[in-house]
Amino acid sequence: xxxxxxxxxxxxxxxxxxxxxxxxxxxxxxxxxxxxxxxxxxxxxxxxxxxxxxxxxxxxxxxxxxxxxxxxxxxxxxxxxxxxxxxxxxxxxxxxxxxxxxxxxxxxxxxxxxxxxxxxxxxxxxxxxxxxxxxxxxxxxxxxxxxxxxxxxxxxxxxxxxxxxxxxxxxxxxxxxxxxxxxxxxxxxxxxxxxxxxxxxxxxxxxxxxxxxxxxxxxxxxxxxxxxxxxxxxxxxxxxxxxxxxxxxxxxxxxxxxxxxxxxxxxxxxxxxxxxxxxxxxxxxxxxxxxxxxxxxxxxxxxxxxxxxxxxxxxxxxxxxxxxxxxxxxxxxxxxxxxxxxxxxxxxxxxxxxxxxxxxxxxxxxxxxxxxxxxxxxxxxxxxx
Length: 385
Prior knowledge:
Blueprint: H1 11-17, H2 56-68, E1 73-77, H3 80-91, E2 97-101, H4 106-115, E3 122-126, H5 131-137, E4 142-148, H6 160-170, E5 173-177, H7 182-185, E6 195-199, E7 213-217, H8 219-227, H9 229-233, H10 239-250, H11 252-272, E8 276-280, H12 290-296, E9 303-308, H13 312-321, E10 326-327, E11 337-339, H14 347-353, E12 360-363, H15 369-382
């Protein structure tokens, strides 16, 4: 992203100042909250009509995120799932087909597998670690390839450039969930992907106090979303929600550096720990797709998977003995969390999905790295007692 003189903007500059237009808002350094449902135009033709369609506060957020993602435009939604479903519905049509990784975010999988079946839409789930997986799954009626890289439970990657090239050769639209890496560390559009989605509830918001979603793509695609999938379904972002997301974006680069620093240190610590069987994290050189990650990501976030050595009961005991880590399903906030997707599956499911039994997922917050490491070490040491 460049300014009028052709000078490149850093991601930090975009988060801090891009699209703020201080003169437009009477010099306010913080964008005001236009907490209004409608805009009258008797004396001024300002272009706004209704917040479900557009709102000045929300537009600042959209312009920042579009710049961060190196896309032409963005549209904000009331949640990550609102953004994901809108992006998919904007591409899929009756009796069409979509290809998607098997271990994609569970609500996304359910939407494609169950809800869209009402319209005759079929989905093929693939491992996704090889572009050939996607090529073999394509049909004449394939309209979309949906990606999520890394996958937030098993932490495998998809080759964005190779899949984008394949899809474009067949006239297929690609959609990528970039929530894990954030626009700071991965830009799928620069790799040829058509649409990027985010659960901005996670790192972009960063404070665990909002639900938010974003879709980024071409101007034409975003114009369509404005009047169809967002406008008709009413899943627009509230102005106060947008203001909170804007606040989160201003500190995103600082927070992501801390998340990454803690994650790299703790992933290495867990990998060397005698009570840990396996660590799943693309930032580790031992990850089987480490080089692919380095080729399409410039950094790593704070979400890690690992498998402790022990029975299900011992792993549950480990979770309960943690002090800094709270138990919960989300991630990307200031607080450290632990979740246990591998405790509730059987061996058949583990074999079918590749998700290890007893897999735990930790989201590393902004606490001191040493304190988090000590908490994990102490609980691991006590899990057998």
